[in-house]
Amino acid sequence: MTKKAIFLLIIVIAIVAGAITIYIMMTPKAFYSEEEIIENMDYLTQKMEVLDVIQLDEKTYFVPILSNGGESYGSSIWIWSGWKWECVGATTASDPQIVVNEGNSYIYWSVHPQDEVREWEFYLTSERNYSVTSVGDDNQVEVYYPKIQMKHSVEFGKESYGYIEMPSEWKDVIGSFNSFPAETGFIPSSHSYMYQWQAYNDDGESIRLEHTFRNGGGGSYGGNYFFHMSQLDPENLE
User: Fold this and answer.
1) Which of 50, 85, 196, 218 is a Cys-bridge partner for 123, taking CB atoms 3.0 to 4.6 Å apart?
2) Which pTM value belongs to this model?
3) Rounded distance, CA 119 to CA 176, Å?
4) Which residues contact 135 (CB under 8 A, 6 or more apart)?
5) 181: Cβ–Cβ under 8 A, 6 or more apart, which residues?
6) What is the pLDDT of residues 1-15, one digit of tens each?
């Protein structure tokens, strides 16, 4: 075999080996058992119980958890990291939050049953804004952002935890502000959004998650997978 043929063979072997490695990395293995979930959860050190294992998509799992002797209802999010399933966030008390992985976005929650939530209202909001930015020596870019207030209602299920996909209307609105005339080469960065929630009981009264957070709420998040949601102040609505 000539040196050229040997060199080509080595290249082919390297390409095949690389392709196999990439395939292994990109293809998630079977998710953990409940015992393995607890063993691999580094964020929380107290004794825990797995309430459910919910697959959000091929590379994302939502695992609601119970801790503090059955008093704290929390959650954990698991992402396929390329070689293994990794817990990227876990809390002992979990109001609605957003997880984003490879373009897929979900709102998830795990609250104490005694809070008796019967309906969620989720909001995408942003304030009016106007900016003037210099582009080059002689040009100015003027941008006006209108006030945004979008509501999405969700009935609370029979379980104290759950999730929904982020509303497609929200994605469309956010995407509409992420473009700008191509000739300027400028993408505005001054616009920001807030993700908020409000909880209601059977009487249609807004409530706070007092039982969910009566023991506080500890935990940690890693990576850029999460967007924080806060409880809505009705006075900010128009």
Assistant:
1) 196
2) 0.81
3) 29
4) 141, 184, 185, 186
5) none
6) 676 666 666 676 667
